[in-house]
Design goal:
330 residues; alpha/beta; Rossmann fold; six-stranded parallel beta sheet; three-stranded parallel beta sheet; elongated
Length: 330
């Protein structure tokens, strides 16, 4: 197939950027699978595996923007990582990264990034995010710290992580975009990326993700697990799908998280990485998207997503209503 992917930012992204990383990973996977890929993205993008067509982000964000003039002839299908106000004249699918506002309907040709994400938006089609394990380090022997890595926003639960570390007297490193007020048990280390980020993920004894919003599909969790680091999270969004009992634990209050934290010391780092290699690599993600593309081209409808088999926390464990929407993922 000749496939077009559209994203209005510059690729790849050096540090934070969940959607950007998925665009690059999927491009690589589709080319490896033998397909021709045209990527429409901001000028200056460098993705060696694909044919790049530059599109000015300022123009692409305008209400009257149409992607059609940027599509080369012979395109079988367009996958857009942003919502299109003016649909193109070829078959196209939208991949939604964040959460819509409560009550805002989704378009039928939308691929979501987890089962929970799809069900909450009235959809039935999803493909989990995937990463390249080769981009990360794996360590069985860990250093003496836990880690929180992500946007320092209340929705990500960094304050719960800091309070949990204080109560359990565990050393916690927080990496994010601005400096919060913390405690003597918690050290803020600023933004991290590249080798520094990979080293921190691999060396951590545990990764805190006490999300306070409905996480669509957290890339940070996948990155921690592929590094052999177990995850302590909440029953929000896709976390019960990703975090099975052999790779982490879920609680919803500081007291529950503190009580669960010692159980993570008994988790095998090999099990954490194995879960990613089985369910959340970019090649698995690519197979999922190709299944969606073929079904859509054959019938005009997206097929239902495929749930992860095996032990996992029940999706019925979600205990909170969805908050306001956000476009961020990862």
């Amino acid at each position: 197939m000749h496939l077009a992917l559209f994203f209005w930012g510059r690729l790849p992204v050096p540090d934070y950027g969940g959607t950007q990383r998925m665009v690059v990973c999927l491009s690589r996977g589709l080319v490896e699978a033998g397909h021709r890929v045209t990527l429409i993205a901001a000028p200056g993008s460098v993705v060696p595996e694909v044919e790049l067509v530059p599109a000015d982000p300022a123009v692409a964000r305008r209400a009257d923007f149409s992607v059609t003039p940027f599509l080369p002839p012979g395109i079988d299908l367009l996958l857009s990582f942003v919502e299109l106000r003016n649909p193109p004249d070829v078959p196209w699918i939208h991949r939604l990264a964040g959460n819509r506002k409560p009550g805002q309907p989704g378009i039928p040709n939308t691929i979501y990034v987890s089962e929970n994400h799809a069900r909450r938006h009235g959809g039935r089609s999803w493909v989990y995010n995937g990463l390249d394990p080769g981009d990360f380090r794996f360590r069985r022997e860990k250093d003496d710290y836990d880690l929180f890595l992500g946007r320092l926003h209340h929705a990500k639960g960094y304050r719960l992580a800091a309070e949990g570390a204080r109560r359990s007297r565990r050393r916690l490193l927080i990496a994010g975009g601005w400096r919060p007020s913390l405690s003597r048990y918690v050290r803020y280390i600023g933004k991290v990326g590249g080798e520094r980020k990979a080293a921190l993920l691999a060396g951590a004894r545990a990764f805190w993700m006490p999300a306070q919003w409905e996480e669509p599909c957290s890339n940070a969790i996948l990155e921690a697990l592929v590094s052999g680091t177990p995850v302590l999270g909440t029953h929000r969004g896709s976390l019960p799908e990703i975090i099975s009992p052999e790779v982490g634990a879920l609680g919803d209050s500081v007291e529950e998280l503190v009580a669960l934290r010692p159980t993570l010391d008994r988790i095998d780092p090999e099990a954490c990485r194995a879960r990613i290699e089985r369910h959340f690599t970019y090649r698995v993600m690519t197979e999922g998207y190709l299944r969606m593309f073929r079904g859509f081209l054959a019938t005009g409808e997206l097929p239902e997503g495929q749930s992860i088999t095996g032990d996992r926390y029940p999706l019925s464990a979600i205990r909170h209503p969805p908050p306001a929407s956000t476009s961020e993922d990862g």
